[in-house]
Structures are given as C-alpha cells and as structure tokens.
C-alpha cells in the first residue's frame, strides 16, 4: 500500500496501464503539458496534473494534445476504440458534455447494440466535474444524471484515491465505453492505494463506508465524504447510519441499497445534482417500489436546488449539500416512529 493523492492515483494507474498494454493511449486538451509547456519535467500535465510524465514516457503517438473541441476529442476516442485501441480521453470540464452529445449518445453508447455485439468500443471518457471552487455556472456542474440515463454507457464516480485507482483500471480494461467522473474537489485528497498492478474494483459493487442500524445514507463521488461526516457526527448522539458509496451509477448496486433499507427502514439520498430526474429520485423510486414495506419514514433527498450553480461563495455554499444538511435529513426521518 502507498499513500497517494487522488490525482496521483489516477495518473499512476494510467501510466501502469500504458506500460502493460500498448493499445492504451491518452488524448485531450493540454494532456501533453499544459500552460504552454510541451512535455518535459516542468510540465504539469493538464490543468488537473493528471497526465504529468506520460508524454516523456510514451511519446506523441500515445499522448495526444487536442484542439479545444470536445466533439473532436470524443469522436476521435470512438474511432480509436473501434480501430482496436483503448483510448483514455479527457474532457477538461464535464460541463461541456453538451458539445459532444451526439458522439456519446448516438455513437459510443450504441455501437455494441447496433452491431449485435460484434463490435466493441472500449473508450474511457474522463470528466472532472462538480462545484466548490466558485467557478460559476459553466464550470461547476455535475453530469452523472445525464450519462446514467444513456443505455450502453458505464458510469463511474470514485470517492477515494484507492477507488479512483481500482475503478479506473477496471474501466481501461473493460470492453464497454465508460464515463469516469472525477470530482474536482477530490483531487487533493490523500489515501492508501493498493500497489498491486492488477488491482481492479468490479463495477456494480457498492462500498459500505459506515455501518449502522438507524438509517441508510446513499451517495456517490464527493457526496460520500459529506455522508460519512454526517454519520460520524450523528454517531456521537448514538445514531448509527449505513453509508453506501455507490461507486458506479450504471450499473447500480440495487441489492446493497435494498438490503440496507430493509434493516434500517429509513433512506436518505445525497446528490449534488438538482432534484428533478436525478440519481436521488432514481434511488428513491427504487426503494419506494421494491422496499416500501420496510420504510418507517418518508424518503429524504439532500440535493442542490433546481437552479444553476451560483458564483458567490456564500451562495454556492448554500446551494451545495453539506454534512449538516445530511445530518438534519437523518434526524427528520428519525422523527417518525
């Protein structure tokens, strides 16, 4: 085990997979260096420093700087994947998914189905996402609610450095297209990471981050840390919560969610997206339809409001879920006896 930051776990995993498999390549804006630097030891490896050193190790044929054109990046990734490569493409900000929606929605997500399983498209599309940096409405959004709704895509939301490593390696080795969502606020997070070069975390298997008998809190990505903080605070008052880290939203580990709710009888879903047609409403509907008899209280959803992400620090703080909001939602469910 080694202690790594989230961004370093991502970079190291890509490096190891490029060493292992010559078909793996990287493309995106500034992935060669960034900030006007083309490779070299001083290069930061993009604005998130997740590709530092790759160009020096693997060269221009496998580490490709692209124009500022998300449609071209994802389209090129699709072509590379269909031609037998295993591209890892980076969209610098997930907010610009709209520019490449046709490539995702009508092409990458559909190839295997349209060709009867005879064609695979093993592309990984990495997308930094999320608010918390006062980056305003166009550089702060989450997009998991959109891509989870696209049949044919696998959607990953790692919450820890170790999960970033194991899930990314699984994504690169997977024969289906994977949307890999990295919350920008997690890049500086440190944690223990397996040094096994074959360490993978299978998709569709949630992680029980905390255990308790009083309530079930479900979250993914950055929201897992908020759920854990709320559970730790509630534990001081003798309230025990299961905290379920989904890891992937497609496939979704329904069994772990339902098994927990059958024990606790209370569900709180934490989601950074606005509440309409969201992951929160999806999980609430799942539990309401398949575990209704187990519920002891109405389902609570802690989400962003149905507004754009605000710029002002105070407004952004009010906009986002927080540990305090999660704890309040748990206490609300416990008011029903």
From TrEMBL:
<keyword id="KW-0560">Oxidoreductase</keyword>
<dbReference type="Pfam" id="PF02780">
    <property type="entry name" value="Transketolase_C"/>
</dbReference>
<dbReference type="InterPro" id="IPR029061">
    <property type="entry name" value="THDP-binding"/>
</dbReference>
<dbReference type="InterPro" id="IPR033248">
    <property type="entry name" value="Transketolase_C"/>
</dbReference>
<feature type="domain" description="Transketolase-like pyrimidine-binding">
    <location>
        <begin position="4"/>
        <end position="189"/>
    </location>
</feature>
<dbReference type="InterPro" id="IPR009014">
    <property type="entry name" value="Transketo_C/PFOR_II"/>
</dbReference>
<dbReference type="InterPro" id="IPR005475">
    <property type="entry name" value="Transketolase-like_Pyr-bd"/>
</dbReference>
<protein>
    <submittedName>
        <fullName>Alpha-ketoacid dehydrogenase subunit beta</fullName>
    </submittedName>
</protein>
<dbReference type="GO" id="GO:0016491">
    <property type="term" value="F:oxidoreductase activity"/>
</dbReference>
<dbReference type="Pfam" id="PF02779">
    <property type="entry name" value="Transket_pyr"/>
</dbReference>
């Amino acid at each position: 085990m080694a202690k790594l930051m989230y961004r370093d776990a991502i970079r190291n995993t890509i490096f190891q997979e490029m060493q292992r498999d010559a078909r793996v390549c990287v493309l995106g804006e500034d992935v060669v260096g960034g900030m006007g630097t083309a490779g070299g030891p001083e290069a930061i490896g993009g604005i998130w420093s997740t590709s530092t050193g790759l160009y020096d190790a693997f060269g221009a044929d496998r580490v490709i700087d692209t124009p500022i054109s998300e449609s071209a990046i994802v389209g090129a990734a699709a072509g590379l994947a269909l031609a037998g490569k295993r591209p890892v493409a980076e969209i610098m900000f997930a907010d610009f998914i709209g520019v490449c929606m046709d490539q995702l929605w009508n092409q990458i997500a559909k190839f295997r189905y349209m060709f009867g399983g005879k064609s695979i498209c093993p592309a990984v599309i990495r997308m930094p996402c999320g608010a918390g940096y006062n980056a305003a409405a166009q550089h702060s959004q989450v997009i998991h609610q959109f891509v989870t709704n696209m049949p044919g895509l696998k959607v990953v939301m790692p919450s820890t450095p170790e999960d970033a490593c194991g899930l990314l390696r699984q994504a690169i080795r997977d024969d289906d297209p994977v949307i890999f969502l990295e919350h920008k606020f997690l890049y500086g997070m440190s944690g223990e990471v397996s040094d096994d070069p074959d360490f993978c975390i299978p998709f569709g298997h949630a992680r029980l981050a905390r255990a308790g008998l009083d309530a079930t809190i479900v979250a993914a990505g950055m929201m897992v840390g908020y759920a854990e903080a709320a559970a730790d605070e509630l534990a001081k008052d003798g309230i025990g919560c299961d905290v379920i880290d989904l890891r992937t939203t497609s496939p979704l580990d329904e069994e772990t969610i339902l098994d927990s709710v059958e024990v606790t009888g209370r569900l709180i879903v934490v989601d950074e997206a606005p509440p309409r047609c969201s992951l929160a409403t999806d999980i609430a509907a799942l539990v309401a339809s398949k575990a209704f008899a187990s519920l002891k209280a109405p389902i609570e959803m802690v989400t962003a409001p149905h507004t754009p992400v605000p710029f002002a620090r105070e407004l952004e703080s009010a906009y986002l879920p927080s540990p305090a909001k999660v704890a309040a939602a748990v206490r609300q469910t416990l008011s029903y006896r």
